[in-house]
Amino acid sequence: MLAGLTVVSTRFLLVLAFITTAAWISTLRRRRRRASHWRRITSAVAAALLTLVLVADGFNSYYSYLPNVSDVVDEVVHRPPPQLEMGRATTKAPVPTQVRGQLATLVIPDDGSGFGKTRAWVWLPPQYFSQPMARFPVVYLFHGSPGMQKDWFHGGAADVTGRFLARQDLPVIEVAPQMSRNWLDDPECVDGIHERVETHLVRDVIPAVDRSFRTIKARSGRIFGGMSAGGYCALNLGLRHRELTATILDLSGFTAPTHAGGLKTLFGRNESALAASNTPASYASSLEAGPQTRIWLDCGTVDRTVLHQMQSIASLLRAAGLTVQLHTRPGDHTYSVWRPALRESLHWALRP
Fold this sequence. Notes:
Elements: H1 10-32, H2 37-63, H3 69-77, E1 83-84, H4 95-100, E2 102-108, E3 118-124, H5 127-130, E4 138-142, H6 158-167, E5 173-176, H7 197-212, E6 222-227, H8 229-240, E7 247-251, H9 263-267, H10 271-277, H11 280-283, E8 294-300, H12 304-319, E9 323-329, H13 335-350
Parallel strand pairs: 1-2, 4-5, 4-6, 6-7, 7-8, 8-9
Antiparallel strand pairs: 2-3, 3-5
Helix pairs in contact: 1-2, 6-13
C-alpha cells in the first residue's frame, strides 16, 4: 500500500514542507536552549536533509518523473524487473501475472549494429498468458534525453496504460529499448559518427523482440512511439522506415535533431546532408509515395516551441498524403502530459 503512495501530490508536498519547517524550528530552539553539541548537529543535519528532499520533490512534482514511492525506491536501490531469456517468454504464468501482465527485461544482443549489447524493458499484457496461441502488436517506446528506457515505466506509467488497454480488449506488448549509452548520452536515435542507434533499432532490437515473443511480424503490428527526444526519434525513424511501422506516436518531440554538442559533433563532416535527411521538418514535404502511415502528434499547450513545430509539420505531412492527428492538452514538457497522451494515442492506434 505504501508503494503506491504518490509523492507528487500537493498534499504530500504540504506535509513534507510542514515536517521540514518543524525540523528547522526544533533546531533553532535547541540552539537557544543550548542543548548538547551533538543534539544540535543532529537536528541541523536532519533539517538540512529534509530541505534537500523537499526541493528535490518539488522538481519531481513538476516533471512527475517518479510519481510513487515504489518508483523512488526502484530508482534508489536500482531494482530492475526479472530478466527474460531470448525466445523463452513463458505462457505458464501465475494468476497475478495473468491479471496484471508481466514487466521484465530482455537482453538485446548486438547483431551487427556495433552499438553493443543492451537491455530493453518489456511489458506483456495479461492476454499473452491467457491466450497462448495469439499474436500481439508491439509498441516501441523511445525514451527522452536525459533519460533511459525505465522512464516509461516510472513517470510514463506505460504498464498502467497497458493494463487499461488490455481491459478494453486492446492488448499490446510494450517494449522500451535502450537508445543511448547512459542517462546523459544524447545520440538523437540516429546513425552518427560515434553511435549507430538507428541501426541498433532496425538490426538488433526489432529482430530480437520478434524472435522472443509472439508478435505480429508486419508493419501493421508495429507502433513507434516516444516522448520529448524520443518523440523526435519515433517521428524520424518512423518516416525513414515506413516499411517497418504503420503508426507513429510523437509526444512533444521536436522536428529536427537537437544535439547539445551541435550537429557536427553528432554527424561529423557531412553534417549538412545527414542532418537534413534526419530532419522531418526538412524532408516531410518531399516524402516519396509509400505505404499508408498514421501519425499522432501530441503536445502540452505551454510547450509553445514544440507545439509550433508540430503544427507546422502536421500540415506538411497531410499534404504528403499521410493521416495526421494533432492533439493538445494542458501542461508543459512533462510526464503529466505524456501519461494521458500515451493512453489516448495508443487507444487510437490499436482500435480496429
